[in-house]
Amino acid sequence: MKNLLKGLKRRMKSLVLSKAERRHALVGPAELWKMKRDFQIEFLKNSDLKPHHYLLDIGCGTLRGGIPLIDYLQAGHYFGIESREEVLDEGRRELLEADLEDKSPTLILSPDISQLNVDQKFDFMWAFSVLIHMSDDILNDALNFVNRHLSNEGVFYANVHAGGEKEGNWQGFPVVTRTLDFYSGACARNGLTVSDLGPLKNLGHVSNEQAQDNQRMLSISKR
Questions:
Q1: CA–CA gap between residue 50 and residue 44 (Å, rounded)
Q2: What pTM was estimated for this model as a whole?
Q3: Alpha helix (H) residue ranges in 159-223
Q4: Which of 11, 112, 165, 183 is most enclosed, with most CB atoms within 10 A?
Q5: Rounded CA gap, 115 and 172, in Å?
């Protein structure tokens, strides 16, 4: 009987892990999930994010980075937008499992960012591994959205492929490489200015995958 109970516990644990791994795989390699979660909040805290700030997470996914940010920020100060309903549903499950509903994050399903308006100005805006999956038209819409919703002293951080990476597709989204000059011009057309903070590997992102660690982190603000 004791061995039977042990076997059931092992199978239940395996099932839970499999569900978690499937959720993690919706936003990238499951084996890198924790590293990428930790990187996001550490980078933003090192960039002077404080609990009283308002933050918007563009492409919040399953709340891989969102959960520690929701926990860190004051109640109601985290906003996340996501274009895929099934992925955002997994994020809501993650929120329940983390017992953070009382932090009252605002989670928005938005398949078309050009049609979205949020009644809030943000001190920080964040897009981790998101701009690399946007077509030029959608990127322009996203930067227009940033211009309209970023506070005058706010900053938008986003990582990008800036040269040498292989293009392709991931879960139905394109994987695109653009030059830093391209991003500079796109930002300028939307009233924004951009600075290159360097490769992710210099900022604490260590995946041991060159294409990921060599992505550049951009700092974007109002002109």
A1: 9
A2: 0.84
A3: 180-189, 210-213
A4: 183
A5: 21
Which tokens belong to 113?
Answer: 């960012």
CA neighbor of 154 nearest in space, from 76, 219, 96, 107:
219
pLDDT tens digits, one per residue of 203-219: 999 888 888 899 999 99
Query: What are residue 93's phi and psi, to 5 degrees?
Result: -65, -40
179 assigned to some structural domain: yes
Residue 122: which H helix or E strand, with range? strand 122-127
Cβ pair 116, 144 in contact under 8 A: no
C-alpha to C-alpha distance for 110 and 97, rounded to whole angstroms:
24
Residue 139 and residue 130 in contact, taking contact as beta carbons nearer than 8 Å: no
Q: Which pair of tokens denotes residue 220?
A: 């974007």
Instruction: Report if residue 20 sits inside a domain.
Output: no
Does residue 11 sit within a domain?
no
Alpha carbon distance, N-terminus to C-terminus of the chain = 70
CA distance 180 to 85: 31
Give pLDDT tens digits for 64-88: 999 999 999 999 999 999 999 999 9
104: domain range? 31-222
- CATH value at residue 60: 3.40.50.150
Buried b / exposed e along 39-72 (16+ C-beta atoms within 10 A):
bbbebbeeeebeeebbbbbbbbbbbbbbbbbbeb
Number of folded domains in the chain?
Answer: 1
List beta partners, residue 79. 56, 106
DSSP 8-state code for residue 219: E
Query: Does residue 92 belong to any structural domain of this protein?
Result: yes
Closest CA to 160 of 194, 113, 123: 194
